[in-house]
Write a structure and sequence with these properties.
By secondary structure, this protein is of the alpha/beta class. Helices cover 36% and strands 17% of the residues. α7 (174-188) crosses α11 and α10 (274-285) crosses α11.
């Protein structure tokens, strides 16, 4: 069943905080839910479908539904890391098309930055005790642990492996990767809520401390608290809301999801799962990468962006380095404006999961509500893509194509 035209995004909200010292995770979910409902012109009583992932506390969807007082007839707690909210948009459209719900709420929230700060204070007061990690510890029942844990995998080096391989295969340079951070910083300077608002240069990036060769500190995303929420509705509902608020429709046109994993040792680090999810979304939407005017691309690291540009078809494999140079991703300058809110590299990567903010900024662009300095003129087609997991081991890609109607 095609999901083209089966649902619209009618509400979008990003939490303004980046450090939630005095807010619980449940409260953050509630805050972003209310923000998205207010944005849509709806109330919680209008919601009959709810979607969340592993960032939700307790029993996930059940716990947050109870906390918000939702009366539901459909829930979905698909968990695939940072790309989950993008898959949730597709799953919500599918549920709406199947008659399972009419208006769906998607939330994501967390406070890893505040938790890390509190753990560091506690560790300082307790000599010899190491602070807890901001990331969740590995599942002791995960079958891959026995094979991978002895080699000390960490998020940073699982992306550095991919960057190093890309450099080896295609001649990509650290300077080329740095252009991605430069573009993000040019956009973040206009975002009052962004964590890093200073414009940086290629030299700033490559001279920042090395984290995991070849990735420098400025090749890495921020760690932030907060979250975001989306409201997905049946087209008839969306049209009535559009009539009331005067906003254009933001229609779901194409969706795709795909995992990539170790394949029993058949490992190729030169492509991501977006090579599979992207073509599915473009085929469903009936357009090509050349039609996209704005792209929200998952930017946990600069290499993550470069891989998606190639795998989604914006440039040929191995040519991502050349594609991003000289400001080609900067709004008003380059061919493909990306992450005009500053993205995860500069603005926000809430709960260590950046998928929801990618959709939110795409919605802003299509509504014409991005900052005037970065707004894409007459933006009609936008793409949001997420990578959840780790590029070098296992991850899930989600691709979403949206049209302003």
């Amino acid at each position: 069943m095609s999901l083209n035209g089966k649902a619209c995004i009618v509400g979008a909200y990003e939490h303004p905080t980046r450090l939630a010292e005095n807010l619980s995770v449940a409260r953050l979910h509630a805050d972003v839910a209310k923000g998205a409902l207010d944005d849509a012109g709806l109330t919680k009583d209008d919601i009959d479908g709810y979607f969340c992932a592993g960032d939700a506390p307790g029993l996930g969807a059940n716990t947050i539904a109870e906390y918000l007082g939702l009366k539901l007839r459909h829930v979905d707690s698909t968990e695939c890391g940072g790309s989950a909210p993008i898959l949730h948009v597709a799953h919500a459209a599918e549920a709406i098309a199947a008659g399972r719900c009419n208006i769906a709420l998607i939330t994501l929230a967390g406070r890893p930055r505040a938790q890390m700060a509190a753990a560091q204070v506690a560790a300082k007061d307790s000599k010899g005790v190491r602070p807890s990690l901001a990331l969740k510890p590995p599942d002791p029942d995960a079958p891959e642990l026995a094979f991978e844990l002895p080699y000390g995998p960490a998020t940073q080096n699982l992306y550095a492996l991919v960057a190093k391989r890309h450099m080896h295969e295609f001649g990509t340079t650290s300077e080329q990767l740095a252009w991605i951070k430069v573009a993000a910083s040019h956009h973040a300077q206009h975002n009052m809520q962004a964590m890093l608002r200073s414009v940086v240069t290629v030299e700033d990036v490559i001279h920042s401390p090395m984290v995991s060769d070849p990735l420098h500190r400025l090749d890495c995303c921020v760690m932030s608290d907060g979250g975001g929420a989306l409201i997905i509705a049946r087209p008839e509902v969306a049209r009535e809301l559009s009539r009331q608020n005067g906003r254009p429709l933001v229609m779901v046109r194409g969706t795709g999801e795909a995992p990539k994993h170790g394949m029993g040792g058949q490992i190729d680090l030169t492509y991501s799962a977006a090579a599979f999810s992207g073509p599915l979304a473009f085929a469903e939407a009936g357009i090509t990468p050349a039609d996209i005017q704005y792209a929200s691309l998952y930017d946990s690291f600069t290499i993550t962006v470069l891989m998606q540009l190639e795998d989604l078809g914006f440039c040929k494999k191995g040519e991502g380095g050349k594609f991003v140079m000289d400001g080609n991703l900067i709004s008003g300058i380059g061919k493909l404006p990306f992450n005009t809110d500053g993205g995860g590299l500069c603005n926000n990567h809430p709960a260590n999961r950046g998928g929801v903010t990618k959709v939110i900024e795409a919605v802003r662009q299509l509504r014409g509500e991005a900052h005037p300095a970065v707004q894409v003129p007459n933006c009609t087609w936008a793409l949001a893509n997420g990578i959840g997991g780790a590029l070098a081991s296992r991850h899930t890609a989600g691709t979403l194509i949206l049209e302003r109607v």
